[in-house]
Design a protein that fits this description.
Two copies of one chain form a homodimer. By secondary structure, chain A is mainly alpha-helical. Chain A has two domains: 29-139, Arc Repressor Mutant, subunit A, CATH 1.10.10; 142-171. Chain A is built from six helices and two strands. At the A-B interface, helix 1, helix 2, helix 5 and helix 6 of A face helix 1, helix 2, helix 5 and helix 6 of B. The structure holds a DNA duplex. Chains A, B: It comes from Albimonas pacifica.
Chain lengths: 188, 188
Amino acid sequence: MTRNEEMLTASRPALLGAAGDDAAFRRMLHDLLAFSARLEQVRARFAAFIGLTPPQYTILITIRHLQDGEGVGVRQVADHLALSPAFVTQETGRLVQAGVVDKRPSAEDRRRVILTVTEHGAELLRRLAPVQREINDQLFEPLTEQSFGVLQALAAELRESAEQAVRLSDYLIAEGAGAGTGSGQRSK
Amino acid sequence: MTRNEEMLTASRPALLGAAGDDAAFRRMLHDLLAFSARLEQVRARFAAFIGLTPPQYTILITIRHLQDGEGVGVRQVADHLALSPAFVTQETGRLVQAGVVDKRPSAEDRRRVILTVTEHGAELLRRLAPVQREINDQLFEPLTEQSFGVLQALAAELRESAEQAVRLSDYLIAEGAGAGTGSGQRSK
DNA sequence: GCGAGATAGTTAAGTTGTCAAGCTATTTCC
DNA sequence: GGAAATAGCTTGACAACTTAACTATCTCGC
């Protein structure tokens, strides 16, 4: 196996195998990809259960997650989910229509809007809980107390490093730079 | 804190906190959600770099991942990514057009089709590697050799348990069962 | 204290991702 | 040898999501 260093998709030693290869790393990426696709499927089922579309459900639980005490704004929700503010506006509109979210202008900053989950929204999520419990148990069935601890801490860290990574990729892969079929590259 | 057991979204002890609460578990779910949204953003940048759309890129690397020795079929790719075969057919068609994937009928089973990455496709991915390396290092910056080991093994297991979980959710959330807005809603 | 930018959100119009349904060709297996 | 299962393809139709252009408010440097 003439392993070519130039082809590695990661270089940190912690991510490479004994032979300096990235096979395990790649496999992990594909596993994570498949896993998150399944998570999304499950979320779609949850959404259906309470009569929402998948993005609506995702936005609803995000609002609840971020609303601590005071409410949360459109932009914060959009950032957290990596969605455009326009889309979040549109979908929260529907959530308000459905009576599961309340939207009111902020008192201090009148450009802003405060999103909170209504009692009705909370009630729907409460009804979902029993089903969720059963499915989540299955979803994370391989986790032990130990590995849950690791994963739980890691998830928080990875969220942040991934945010950085997106910024880095925007910098490295600027509009037009690329290895496209033939044409030369230009930086912005 | 009158923690109500009925509202928990997980019940396995390994997933609950000292107080029997699911706060950490929920936080983890939101972190994973945000993380995978960022992963998707990064994939979109990778795709752009080699002149493909995000789903095309994802399908391309999945074909490469699964093609070991012999090629891989449409259905296997669809299953791995939780996409419909119809969509995979359509997008692989475009990948063939773009010259990055080869599609030929299987010799043994003439219903089937064998997908492989062409030399040109491999070359594009090779050109992407240096960028990928830098971004992946940032993406997984918090990982140590230890935690990489844990995560790597976990990802493989979670992929399977999640597959089970999707089946379970299909069973539990059958067409029409639900906590919709009051009325028992009939779907078409 | 005042105009130039930045920031929050909305609206409308468009693009892209994705699927369901219906079809053909093959294989399986009773 | 035929019914049922399986692999893939085609077409239409939506749902998900974005970009661009706009309004309203806020923040500062000067």
